[in-house]
Amino acid sequence: MPLVSIITPSWNVEGLIEETIRSVQSQSFADWELLIADDCSTDKTPEIIADIGARDPRVKLIRQAKNGGPALARQAAIDRAQGRYLAFLDSDDLWLPEKLERQLAFAKEKKAALSYTAFRRINETNTVTGRLIEVPASLTYGQLLKNTAIATLTAMVDREIAGPIAMKNEGYDDFCLWLSILKRGHTAYGLNEDLARYRVRGSSVSSRPVRSAKWVWQIYRNVEHLSLVRSAWCFAHWGARAWLKRREF
């Protein structure tokens, strides 16, 4: 059984998926499986994944029967995962070579149900843009409601501590998952080290700030069932942090 199962949804990323896979294969920690759930790509994405998987059995292609979005693709990968730890990596993002090794040691030290790290942004030509996105040392459920600190490509879940893991088919399904874990009384811990590269693309699901804000509001009201007043209070804090996070300096 691999110790870490890496959860990756993919859709029409034939020009990027190989580099993402290579960033996993280059990890200093090697006891992993990479589960890539392809969401009915119309380009050569699944063929590229299958070809790499034929040479490295740790890379596993899951073909979705119909296009359902990243939440359902992530859930398909989670359903097949064998590892104690779940790490999340989108199909256009990258990890630095010591990401898994450093974060695993940190998560074990903290006995963390959920951990996350700092990261930098890159553009479509792999140029680093902006500053290091630093993270707070810890987050509770109430704090995460007002925060944008846990980027998907930096998150790691210890299933033995966190309990059952299930994605909600919502915009920002990842945010819903982190909240569901912390709502059980756990605290998330942040490793403030530069270990990942988040690729900013105009076509990415979360690239539109107005839509992102709408998704967060819907999570407050329809998933977490917060009151109107508490939703507005959390949203004001979330919006301010989101604006600061998007600034490049």
Automatic annotation (TrEMBL):
One of its GO terms (molecular function) is hexosyltransferase activity. Gene3D superfamilies: Spore Coat Polysaccharide Biosynthesis Protein SpsA, Chain A. Keywords: Transferase. SUPFAM superfamilies: Nucleotide-diphospho-sugar transferases. It comes from the Bacteria. It holds the Pfam family Glycos_transf_2. Residues 5-135 form the Glycosyltransferase 2-like domain. InterPro entries: Glyco_trans_2-like, Nucleotide-diphossugar_trans. CDD domains: Glyco_tranf_GTA_type. PANTHER family: GLYCOSYLTRANSFERASE, UDP-GLCNAC:BETAGAL BETA-1,3-N-ACETYLGLUCOSAMINYLTRANSFERASE-LIKE PROTEIN 1. This is Teichuronic acid biosynthesis glycosyltransferase TuaG.
